[in-house]
Amino acid sequence: MDKKYQIFISSTYDDLKDAREKVRDAILSMLHFPVGMEMFSAGDEEQWEIIQETIDSSDYYVLIVGQRYGSVIETGNDAGISYTEKEFRYAKTQKVPILAFILSDDADIKMSAIESEPKKMEKLNAFKEEVKAGRVVEWWDTTEGLARQVTAALHNQMDRKKRPGWVRSDSFDLEASHTEILKLNQHVRELQEENARLKAQIAERKPKLTAEFYLDETEDTNAQEDSDEWDDIKTVEDECRSHGGLLVELNKDSMIFRLSPVYAEKYRNRYEPLDTFYIAPHLKKYVSDEALRKYNEELPAKETVDDYIEKMERYLRIRKGGITFSLEVANGGTSKATDVRVCINFPKEFKLFKISDIDDIKEPEAPKLPVNPIDKAEREYEKHLYPSMLFGNMALPHAFLSPSEELNILSAVPNFIVNQPDYVLSVCEHNITAEFDQILHKAQRWLDGIYIVPTARGKFKVKISIMCSEYPDWEEKHLEIEVI
Predict the structure, then answer these.
(1) How is the beta sheet containing 33-36 ordered, strand by strand?
(2) Residue 300 in contact with residue 271, Cβ under 8 Å?
(3) What's 111's DSSP letter?
């Protein structure tokens, strides 16, 4: 079919009127349709809509740039640019093939056709650079030469980039085409219905992973509670699991903690200076003023005591103020999840531990005290009061063994072979990372002994991120925590 193409001509008007006419006539001689700004009032918003529609329906866009920038738009989103630049930018966004022709600096033109305003000249130069970016432009000297360049360029474009164009209605069978289109539409509908039917029959199989915290009340199976001799022995892990009362509320989306009170200042009392006021009447003859003075002088410095109290407060906060949780990672989907990774990020106001590591956190060493003269006097008094008191060692009956001896005997028994867990749990200062080889669908995995210590009151957010091989990207949720 013989196509006719619509070509939009864009340029400034007064200075390039002759050039536009030459290009228009050249396009008409090619038996195609030239259109341009001659039929529009560029400053009218309604007319701009017509210009947009005309560019949309055009097959090619011919831009002619001279030595004038043209009228500038004063209001709206495009304020500050010319109408020609606005047309060019719109054609570029619509992906209409652009053929650009820029007047050569050596061309012989009238002074009236040269931009006289410095600001507009800057805008013109910037516009030329924008036009040259990403495309080949042609330079012209005369209007006759421009017409020939446009004709040749259009022929090349029409051969390389086929456009819809226009055809005569009698060049093809409209009725047959309409019937074919109806058949194709009917076939598309049938395929869409069949596709929907097949999708409904096949359940999409994919994992659905969640991670939730639960209060860990697991008992230490190593504690020998049935032994009369060890009735009062309680492991550090048992002690940490006994802080469940600090958890006020727990659900899948939020927690409320109670901040445990810490009384580290009470340890400061032992470093207070002594005075005769503290000496009982029956001990006064055993304590001299010199002994009191020397004791007070040898007390640790205030800075040393302050540092100890600060460390003691951190230690007590961990040992007395944490809550032990179990983390459940569940797969509620319809297929197993492989290479599962769960990352939980707490804010800096929380400290995290494995409960098995709490025993390694030792109480800070207290600054050494000098010999207390009052305690020494107490012993002197008792010595004079009971001069004949003898103390002897009591031998343990051979029928009984100490706990340490029992442990030595137990250690001689060969160890049982224990399967290594198929997961990795990492708990560092503020983060938890858990990795699993796989989690079957409708299955849960439990990670016990995660010890969480809040250190300040307030409202906080915890980010939980989950990834597996079947997910295209990380899935994230937030857990709200309030510490009261």
Answers:
(1) 33-36, 6-10, 60-65, 98-103, 138-140
(2) yes
(3) G
Residue pLDDT, tens place only, 209-257: 999 999 987 655 444 444 444 444 578 888 888 898 999 999 989 999 9
What is the Cα–Cα distance from 406 to 277, expressed in whole angstroms?
Answer: 49
Taking a C-beta distance cutoff of 8 angstroms, is the pair 167, 4 a contact?
yes
Residue 273 tokens read as 């200076």
Report the 10 Å Cβ neighbour count for 469.
Answer: 11
* Pair of tokens at residue 406: 């029992």
Pairing of strands 423-427, 431-439: antiparallel
Contact criterion met (CB below 8 Å) for 474 and 375: no
Rounded CA separation 350/430 (Å) = 6
- Position 459 pLDDT exceeds 90: yes
- Hey, what amino acid is at 227? S
- Pair of tokens at residue 223: 């504690």
Range scoring the smallest mean pLDDT among 47-51, 55-59, 302-306, 480-484:
47-51
Helix (H, G, I), strand (E, B) or coil at 303: helix
d(CA 435, CA 430): 17
DSSP calls for 209-251: EEEEEEE-----TTS-TT-GGGTT---HHHHHHTTGGGEEEE-
Measured between alpha carbons, how far is 193 from 199 in angstroms, rounded to an integer?
10
280-309 b/e with 16+ CB inside 10 Å = b?
eeebeebbeeebbeebeeebbeeeebeebb
Q: Report the distance separating Cα 359 and Cα 235, nearest Å.
A: 9
pTM of the model: 0.51
Three-state DSSP class for residue 159 = helix
Tokens 């100890």 label which residue?
308
Mean pLDDT of 17-37: 93
Measuring CA to CA, which residue among 362, 320, 355 is closest to residue 432?
Answer: 355
Q: Out of 66-75, 91-100, 275-284, which region has the weakest mean confidence (pLDDT)?
A: 275-284
Sequence-separated (6 or more) residues with CB below 8 Å from residue 269: none
Cα 56 to Cα 96: distance, rounded to the nearest angstrom: 8
Contact 72, 127 (CB under 8 A): no
Residue 128 phi, psi dihedral angles, 5° rounding: -60, -40
Which pLDDT score is estimated for 43?
Answer: 53
Is residue 282 very low, low, confident or very high in pLDDT (cuts 50, 70, 90)?
Answer: confident
- In which order are the strands placed within the sheet that holds 323-331? 209-215, 323-331, 443-454, 350-354
Q: Give the single-character DSSP code of 114.
A: B
